[in-house]
Each structure stands twice: as structure tokens, then as C-alpha cells.
Specification:
mainly beta, elongated, 8% helix, four-stranded antiparallel β-sheet
């Protein structure tokens, strides 16, 4: 018998202070795992070569590529 393994993503936040280019956006989120009391923070970066400072977030994300995914720290 196989059991599902559900992960929970919460607290997604854009980190505006880490990006000085309209072609790059950086974010962080909390990843909750079953049977773990403390979520793990992850940082990721999206790059969209056709974006400019007027590009809406939805359009930015749809046309972007994941360029960095980094495991961060535990939330205690």
C-alpha cells in the first residue's frame, strides 16, 4: 500500500530588495513536510529576458525560466 507525500508551500514572498533588474525576480517560500514541525525556507530566482519595468507579475512568471533554487534555513 502506498501513502501520499504531501508538501505544503506557504508564505510566498517576492524579495524586491534583491533584484535591481526588471528581468530578474527573486522569491522565498516556506516548505512544510509531513511529520515536521518546522518548515524549510527556499529561495528561488526567475529570469524573463523580455520583461521590462512595466511587465505585470503574471506575465513575468508565464514567460520566465527558473534560474536558481536554493535551500535556506529552518523556521523555528
Amino acid at each position: 500500500m502506498s501513502r501520499g507525500y504531501n508538501l505544503t508551500i506557504t508564505n510566498l514572498e517576492e524579495l524586491n530588495f534583491l533584484s535591481d533588474s526588471p528581468k530578474i525576480k527573486r522569491f522565498r517560500f516556506w516548505l512544510g513536510r509531513p511529520k515536521s514541525a518546522n518548515p524549510q525556507v527556499y529561495i528561488f530566482e526567475l529570469t524573463n529576458e523580455i520583461a521590462d519595468k512595466n511587465t505585470e507579475l503574471k506575465d513575468f512568471i508565464e514567460n520566465s525560466k527558473l534560474t536558481i533554487l536554493k535551500e535556506g534555513w529552518l523556521i523555528i
